[in-house]
Amino acid sequence: xxxxxxxxxxxxxxxxxxxxxxxxxxxxxxxxxxxxxxxxxxxxxxxxxxxxxxxxxxxxxxxxxxxxxxxxxxxxxxxxxxxxxxxxxxxxxxxxxxxxxxxxxxxxxxxxxxxxxxxxxxxxxxxxxxxxxxxxxxxxxxxxxxxxxxxxxxxxxxxxxxxxxxxxxxxxxxxxxxxxxxxxxxxxxxxxxxxxxxxxxxxxxxxxxxxxxxxxxxxxxxxxxxxxxxxxxxxxxxxxxxxxxxxxxxxxxxxxxxxxxxxxxxxxxxxxxxxxxxxxxxxxxxxxxxxxxxxxxxxxxxxxxxxxxxxxxxxxxxxxxxxxxxxxxxxxxxxxxxxxxxxxxxxxxxxxxxxxxxxxxxxxxxxxxxxxxxxxxxxxxxxxxxxxxxxxxxxxxxxxxxxxxxxxxxxxxxxxxxxxxxxxxxxxxxxxxxxxxxxxxxxxxxxxxxxxxxxxxxxxxxxxxxxxxxxxxxxxxxxxxxxxxxxxxxxxxxxxxxxxxxxxxxxxxxxxxxxxxxxxxxxxxxxxxxxxxxxxxxxxxxxxxxxxxxxxxxxxxxxxxxxxxxxxxxxxxxxxxxxxxxxxxxxxxxxxxxxxxxxxxxxxxxxxxxxxxxxxxxxxxxxxxxxxxxxxxxxxxxxxxxxxxxxxxxxxxxxxxxxxxxxxxxxxxxxxxxxxxxxxxxxxxxxxxxxxxxxxxxxxxxxxxxxxxxxxxxxxxxxxxxxxxxxxxxxxxxxxxxxxxxxxxxxxxxxxxxxxxxxxxxxxxxxxxxxxxxxxxxxxxxxxxxxxxxxxxxxxxxxxxxxxxxxxxxxxxxxxxxxxxxxxxxxxxxxxxxxxxxxxxxxxxxxxxxxxxxxxxxxxxxxxxxxxxxxxxxxxxxxxxxxxxxxxxxxxxxxxxxxxxxxxxxxxxxxxxxxxxxxxxxxxxxxxxxxxxxxxxxxxxxxxxxxxxxxxxxxxxxxxxxxxxxxxxxxxxxxxxxxxxxxxxxxxxxxxxxxxxxxxxxxxxxxxxxxxxxxxxxxxxxxxxxxxxxxxxxx
Amino acid sequence: xxxxxxxxxxxxxxxxxxxxxxxxxxxxxxxxxxxxxxxxxxxxxxxxxxxxxxxxxxxxxxxxxxxxxxxxxxxxxxxxxxxxxxxxxxxxxxxxxxxxxxxxxxxxxxxxxxxxxxxxxxxxxxxxxxxxxxxxxxxxxxxxxxxxxxxxxxxxxxxxxxxxxxxxxxxxxxxxxxxxxxxxxxxxxxxxxxxxxxxxxxxxxxxxxxxxxxxxxxxxxxxxxxxxxxxxxxxxxxxxxxxxxxxxxxxxxxxxxxxxxxxxxxxxxxxxxxxxxxxxxxxxxxxxxxxxxxxxxxxxxxxxxxxxxxxxxxxxxxxxxxxxxxxxxxxxxxxxxxxxxxxxxxxxxxxxxxxxxxxxxxxxxxxxxxxxxxxxxxxxxxxxxxxxxxxxxxxxxxxxxxxxxxxxxxxxxxxxxxxxxxxxxxxxxxxxxxxxxxxxxxxxxxxxxxxxxxxxxxxxxxxxxxxxxxxxxxxxxxxxxxxxxxxxxxxxxxx
Lengths: 1035, 495
What we know:
Chain A: This is 4Fe-4S dicluster domain-containing protein. The complex is a heterodimer. By secondary structure, chain A is α/β, with parallel strands linked by helices. Chain A contains 34 helices and 41 strands. Chain B is built from 18 helices and no strands. Chain B is globular and about 100 Å long. The two termini of chain B are 28 Å apart.
């Protein structure tokens, strides 16, 4: 049936063309848009105004917030065995550079080593590290490392790529083999701890008759080795046991900073400085030195002498102990008294004394051996059964080698891990000699001053890419295993030797076979690699040795000291050491513990010297980075360096750090190249050993100035109760005296933290779960800076460079404040690590307009970097000044392109591999600060949660805590009554415990434990007492 | 005509000489000089807008724009390279930036005080200066606002300070932060001041429109005057609006600088943590604001020939305010010193006595003391208060002093606070100075444009204080009084 058709109008019925048009048009009427003829004449209806406004605001907002560059990461296509993205792997390894012995555990993420920690299975270091060890992971990614083997094209070319013509290893092996065939070879290396490498060297040298191995230490200890040989028949270093000593006398040995193996000694020494509140006792540390060293700064009694007086001081001490030498004349009354005091203390503590000396003079060391012998140290604090291998170089061997080289009697010179063209005292002679050598081969991993002169360059791996072993003490082994495949075309030094001695075994197999033979099985070897160390069973008694030294003739050979005029002393900086690892931005930017300077060396002078050059400590000195440049002449050599006043240095001593003044930036690297001046030319050879001082020095003003980047310019804590200290005597007498200034807080109630508030009725958050807290013991913090570098590594703290340090823009989350007190020429020193105090009543939190910094339910003052707009109000309002602002784009995380400020290649794709992926890189314009290593805390909590158990104390550790050699930092959950932190605060150390700036009622989560000095006179405490009495009288 | 020459002593008027006008107060001087009728007023004030600007104006504007461009360059430099191009550091997070912010905000206060509080107190003399003073407020707040914006490390995220609904949680701003209070205080202040100023401009714009001879001028001023016709209804609403806005502005005079002072007062830093700050800051703001008004009006009246409208009476009145508020800040300074000693807190004591009044930045404290406390005391002398040159120099000295006050508060408190290890020093870098100069450029560019295109005196308002009819009556009476009594009686009788 056909549908009936209804029509609405005649047009539709007739279906006119006009009607068809209309039907095609969807909208029969115009939409109510207001039309206008021109754009300018367009009217915006009132009712649409808000719409337009809303749209434009939203559009602007979106446009503004989306413009952050996206960085792409490429995931694994196939999951590698043993690597789970996001989960770190740990491998045991060891740091053995230049004879230091620090067993390590290396953290790798996605195949990249990013952090090293001390291996706690080692009884020698017990998990402690040093700043340099912490920084060594960055050296792996150093852009200045050599990337391929090759042949040196010579000095005509400037670019590094052109200077070294790349060769394949096969080609290179062929050429080297031909070049050294039949020649007597000299292998010149730094101290090697690896027994297997030494065995291999022996095999290699045997193939080339007339060959020899010369060990050369840039900073030598051969005086000690020779003295020990003469005194005890062993050319070795004994094992020191500072932990057994009640009296420690150091004659210029910086054993906490640079002497032999500081991580080991710091730990031992720290054990003697811990205060048990119930039975307070601690070692007494006398220190005699010319410059102000880190160790001297921590001494209880410190005395200064001229550098040339080092022998006389030992002589005088021996004489005072009745050692059969006549007492020399000592003009300085204070020094004389100090020696008498030290002698008295030694005599009062037989068998509980340790005397160490930093002198490289055989005669001085013989006298020191005699002192230790008299004091009964052998077998008590010194072990001769287990000797240490930390340094093995004999200076005379090196001098002989350089003479041989110049005589043309060295057929081939293989240079491994040393750089005499820079650090040998007569570098010119070495350079002249190397030209007369048949062929020179360098295994150094960078194009340093010596490698520049070698024909063949076969760069070695970094230790984190290597296989190896190390024997720190006799019978104590640590193992090195690769944590990453070699980044470049480098080859293990040992592989080269194996190849060149015709042995086809791979080095790792050679090492493995050697150890499997010793250990008995593959399983034992695997276990060993897992543990990282092998040690003899504990409990063996220390062994003494019979002293056979010729004291009389040693004493007779002590040179008469100078009595007036300037003298020059050379020293190693804690961070830079002998300069081998100087191209490390983390270490260059780590402030020197004493001077608080970065990126430079300088002439450390006393107040007295400074005054003669019209420089004085004071406002002008503090606020101006420009320091006067002095011209220093000694031994016919001249150097121009800016002066830096170091209170406590001997009044007529100028001290200069070695390790600076390296070659061109393009070869050495941007961090170390052309920084500071080389002080090694001032070293001299006295016929037996190198002397690291110059008794005749001339100092002149140059009239010019030079800027030094100091991170702290004011030296005194101005008597403010931010640092508390007392003497042991006073502390035993009245332990409460330390916190006498807290007594007036009692007026606010029994518990100042809770009661001193205006808001008594308010609700207070009680932290029901975890509440993190930290305790820092000022008595066992020595200011070494390992924690500072550990923090930098863990938290991707940016390096800013010298210019920005001068502008006080450095980024360190954790700094170590150093304060002097007392006599301006013989000050006492205190170190105070200062980091975010995670205040429960944080002044930074309530001033942030956007709530970018806020408090966690676990008591952490946290930063939401993405939210931060950079008003810096929080930093202004921080009483501790621990907040750090990203003043510039240090790391490429900025919204703008092309404004990166990177003075030290920290943003190379290679260097950035060191970044910790757990911690975000902060962009320019945001504030940052210590987070209590929140990523580690989360990790510990999640691990416990996954295992279905409560988190145990010690599972969550901050990077600074872990790096500390002395456990000066205790961290944990204060709600856990079993935790160390709870016990320290509530049971063990209430008397010494205080909070910095407690009276501001910001409620910090970090407490400090007052420093105790073991000294006789107690001027500080007495003053406190007197003041206290006065106050009482006043009331 | 009894026209007095400007600057003549009002006490020595004709009235005194002839004893004719005994009913006229000899103490109160007229608010404007000269006998002006309504037309004359309009002529005097509007004609500069219609005339071609002078050479000086072009030079001034050119220099201002140059400064402004340099400021733009300095800020661009800073935004691109980072706040690190400024010499602020880990210890001193605020320097010239916030110093300048507080300084400019303070300057703005005089305008609001004149327009709002004096309106409520029915101070007729305000009509001569309120327009320019309010303009100064607007421009000063515009300049002030630049600093908190561009001092941010990530200025492109500045909108985070706005409490807008968002998908971040929602994540709100921190209402505890004084900096956030600043955001509200300054934006409210700017909005209200702008509305007040603009609503006052409406009748005057209409006058300019009605006199306009070119089409463009007529169009532009027509738009600007929002269709003002001058009907009674318009006037009535205008008056009500003025009163409402005056009522709103009055608390702002006190609150804005109080809140700015909270940035410091609520902190824990010695030298900032002071309860005296709110009144001290408000007094200081009015002090510097009046000084700036003096600086501007002394130039304006000279160049535009408005000596009849901005009289010595105005200058003197404002100098009285200056000596009063200057003395208040002086007392505040001394109180701070006293409290620092009396509190017995070592940090406070050191900050005030060792690092503020002495120490490497001590010079700034003594500049402040000299400029703000000692030098304004000259205004105790009437002769000095009425001396244009002295006033002009003093107005500049006061603003230098007030700039240093803010510098002293911010920098000498920060550079040496609790932990001596962090003590530092501060010198500005060129982009910081450039930014400051740039705001001068912005301020004077705006002011020059204002002086040329806007009626610098509130024409409609000043007409309300004209005493032309009274004056005319007196003059008529003069004629009679000079005749003898009989003649007068005779004349009267004939009527």
